[in-house]
Design brief:
The chain is mainly beta and 290 residues long. It is built from 3 helices and 21 strands.
C-alpha cells in the first residue's frame, strides 16, 4: 500500500484534537478537553460550533475534563448520530454524548454501568480511544500503555447505552506481535466498501491511562477482512505505515483519530487529527492506495 499526503494544517483555534468524523460533507472535530465540537467543511473552513459544556476556558482542566476520546457516526433507528465517548480512565470520564446529525441536538449519557462491566470482563485498565460502526455492531478500542501492553477491541451493540447491564460484550486482542515497539491504538474507522478496519496508533512514554508522556511515533494501520476477523480470538494487523518516517509533516505530532472522506475501487481518502499536548490541533488529509 502507498500513502499520499494531500494537505495538512495547524489549527490553533481548537484544542487537543482527539476524534474526527465525516458525514454529509462536514467534518466533526472533537477535543479531549474541548467544550465544543467544531464543524468544518472538507477543506477545513470552520462553519459553526456545537456546545457540549459551559466553560469559559479554551481547555477544560485535566482533573475536570470528560476526556472525550472516541467518536463514531452511527446509523440507529433510521437516524444518523455522532457518538462521542469519554475514555473511562477516571470516574468523571464515563460520560458520552449522542448528537443528532439532523439538528445537532444532544443527548447526554452515563456509561458507568457498561464501563464497570468491561473492567470485570478482563480489561486491566480502561482507556477507550476509538469507536467505529461495523455493520450492526459497534467496535470500541481500549488503548494499551507501557504497563498494559495489549490493545483490545470490544464488540458490542450500536445501542449498548440503552441497556448497559445486558448489552453484549466480546473482547478481541489486536495482534502487534510482529512489531517491537509499544503501540497504542488511538482511533479506528471502518471501510464497508473494502471491509478494512483502518486505525491510527501513537506511542508515548507513560505507564498508565491518565498521565501524558514523551511523544513517539504514530502509525496508520490496516486490517484486511475486518468484519470476518472480529469473530476470531485475535486480530492480526496487515500493515503499519510509519507516518513521520514517511512524511516529515507528522514529526512531533501524536495522531489521535482517523475517518473516511471518500472511497474508490483502489483507494481511500482519509482525514486525520493530531495533537502535541500543547493545546493545539493538527489536521492531515491523505490518500491510501492499494
Amino acid at each position: 500500500m502507498k500513502l499520499d499526503l494531500l494537505d495538512h494544517k495547524e489549527l490553533k483555534s481548537f484544542p487537543s484534537g482527539s476524534g474526527i468524523e465525516f458525514y454529509d460533507n462536514k467534518i466533526y472535530l472533537v477535543g479531549d478537553d474541548a467544550a465544543r465540537i467544531l464543524v468544518m467543511n472538507k477543506r477545513w473552513k470552520e462553519k459553526y460550533d456545537i456546545v457540549l459544556f459551559e466553560s469559559g476556558e479554551k481547555r477544560i482542566p485535566k482533573k475536570q475534563k470528560a476526556d472525550l476520546e472516541a467518536t463514531a457516526v452511527l446509523q440507529l433507528d433510521k437516524k444518523n448520530y455522532l457518538l462521542v465517548l469519554g475514555s473511562g480512565s477516571r470516574q468523571n470520564r464515563n460520560k458520552a454524548i449522542l448528537v443528532d446529525l439532523k439538528n445537532d441536538s444532544l443527548i447526554e449519557l452515563d456509561n458507568t454501568v457498561f464501563y464497570e462491566r468491561l473492567k470485570a470482563s478482563g480489561i486491566a485498565e480502561l482507556n477507550i480511544e476509538g469507536a467505529a460502526q461495523v455493520h450492526d455492531h459497534l467496535l470500541l478500542c481500549n488503548r494499551a500503555n507501557q504497563s498494559n501492553p495489549v490493545n483490545q477491541l470490544i464488540i458490542t451493540s450500536l445501542d449498548f447505552f440503552r441497556n448497559q447491564e445486558e448489552a453484549p460484550v466480546m473482547l478481541l486482542d489486536i495482534d502487534f506481535s510482529a512489531y517491537e515497539e509499544s503501540i497504542g491504538v488511538s482511533g479506528i474507522t471502518y471501510s464497508d466498501t473494502h471491509d478494512q478496519i483502518i486505525f491510527t496508533t501513537s506511542s508515548e512514554a507513560t505507564g498508565n491511562s491518565y498521565d501524558d508522556g514523551a511523544i513517539g511515533k504514530s502509525y496508520l494501520g490496516i486490517i484486511e477482512n475486518g468484519y470476518r476477523k472480529i469473530w476470531k480470538k485475535n486480530m492480526k494487523v496487515n500493515e503499519l505505515i510509519d507516518l513521520p518516517g514517511t512524511f516529515d509533516e507528522f514529526k512531533g505530532h501524536k495522531v489521535e483519530s482517523v475517518c473516511i472522506q471518500s472511497e474508490k475501487d483502489h483507494s481511500v481518502k482519509l482525514q486525520l487529527v493530531a495533537d502535541d499536548d500543547t493545546g493545539e490541533s493538527y489536521l492531515f488529509k491523505v490518500r491510501l492506495r492499494f
